[in-house]
């Protein structure tokens, strides 16, 4: 393991490991239509995710948090999503193979997401079984603040100089930079290459196969 460039991986969840847009859309629209507001398209949801579910619902609600019914709408979304977050959600093709390959190599892994904590842990248990998973919880600032990543690194015993962050969005790039970690950006998620270019991703991969090669490089290959 000492020959590996990285011995720990911090994963983003939505758009990196999991396709979740359909379930998010359905829960947002359940809440909106209950109050007679226009429903949102999959594209509306895609461009609005990344900064947590409250921010997502705010972007999709007329007048956002200034709407007099916003708290009720947000509560309805949470209740619906808690019951339906596995209806259409699925891992991207190839990512479970990567996670299992890294487990065999002894590389420690954690998931850090701006989803609510219970959902992150449930989804990890359902699909991935990595060493640690954390979502939004009291006392820790959400991404792009480094708080949750630092907690995850501490929990898995990660060495900063041998840890890499993997995500699909501008929020992930900011998170990695705020934590002082290199970032590998995957291009199968919720942002296009063109949308990400202004944020200057340092390493981009187009397929899980390429991602595995990037993670398991030795320092001499880097």
List the helices and strands and how they pair.
Elements: E1 8-11, E2 18-19, H1 21-34, H2 42-48, H3 53-60, H4 70-84, E3 90-91, H5 95-105, E4 108-116, H6 117-128, E5 132-136, H7 147-156, E6 163-167, H8 170-179, E7 183-186, H9 193-196, E8 203-205, H10 208-215
Description:
With 222 residues, the protein is of the alpha/beta class. It has two domains: 8-19 and 90-215, 3-Layer(aba) Sandwich (Rossmann fold), CATH 3.40.50; 21-84, Orthogonal Bundle (DNA polymerase, domain 1), CATH 1.10.150. It is 45% helix and 15% strand. The chain has ten helices and eight strands. It has helices at residues 21-34, 42-48, 53-60, 70-84, 95-105, 117-128, 147-156, 170-179, 193-196, 208-215, and strands spanning 8-11, 18-19, 90-91, 108-116, 132-136, 163-167, 183-186, 203-205. The strands form two sheets. It has a six-stranded parallel beta sheet, sandwiched between helices. Helix 8 (170-179) links the parallel strand 6 (163-167) and strand 7 (183-186). Helix 1 (21-34) crosses helix 4 and helix 5 (95-105) packs parallel to helix 10 (208-215). The longest helix has 15 residues, at 70-84. The chain is elongated.
Keywords:
222 residues; alpha/beta; Rossmann fold; 2 domains; 6-stranded parallel sheet; 10 helices; 8 strands; elongated
* CATH superfamily placement of the largest domain: HAD superfamily/HAD-like
Q: How many strands appear in the DSSP assignment?
A: 8
CATH classification, class level of the largest domain: Alpha Beta
Order of helices and strands: EEHHHHEHEHEHEHEHEH
**Reading side by side through the largest sheet, how are the strands ordered?**
5-4-1-6-7-8
Based on the coordinates given, report the CATH architecture of the largest domain.
3-Layer(aba) Sandwich
Query: Helix count?
Result: 10
Average pLDDT rating: 94
Q: What is the CATH topology descriptor of the largest domain? A: Rossmann fold
Gap from first CA to last CA: 16 Å
Number of discrete domains: 2
Shape: elongated
Structural class by helix and strand composition: alpha/beta
Q: How much of the polypeptide forms β-strand, as a percent range?
A: 15-25%
């Amino acid at each position: 393991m000492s020959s590996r460039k990285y011995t720990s991986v911090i994963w983003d969840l939505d758009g990196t490991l999991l396709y979740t847009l359909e379930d998010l859309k359905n829960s947002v629209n359940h809440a909106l239509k209950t109050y007679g507001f226009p429903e949102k398209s999959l594209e509306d949801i895609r461009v609005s995710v990344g900064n947590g579910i409250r921010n997502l619902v705010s972007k999709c609600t007329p007048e956002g948090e200034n709407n007099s019914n916003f708290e009720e709408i947000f509560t309805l979304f949470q209740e619906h999503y808690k019951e339906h977050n596995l209806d259409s959600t699925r891992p991207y093709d190839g990512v479970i193979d990567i996670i299992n390959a890294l487990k065999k190599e002894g590389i420690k892994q954690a998931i850090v997401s701006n989803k609510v904590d219970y959902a992150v842990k449930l989804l990890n248990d359902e699909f991935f079984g990595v060493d640690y998973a954390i979502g939004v919880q009291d006392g820790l600032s959400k991404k792009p603040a480094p708080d949750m990543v630092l907690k995850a690194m501490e929990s898995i015993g990660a060495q900063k100089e041998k840890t890499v962050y993997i995500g699909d969005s501008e929020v992930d790039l900011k998170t990695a930079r705020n934590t002082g970690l290199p970032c590998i950006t995957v291009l199968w998620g919720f942002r296009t290459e063109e949308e990400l270019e202004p944020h200057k991703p340092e390493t981009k991969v187009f397929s899980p196969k390429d991602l595995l090669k990037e993670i398991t490089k030795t320092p001499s290959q880097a």
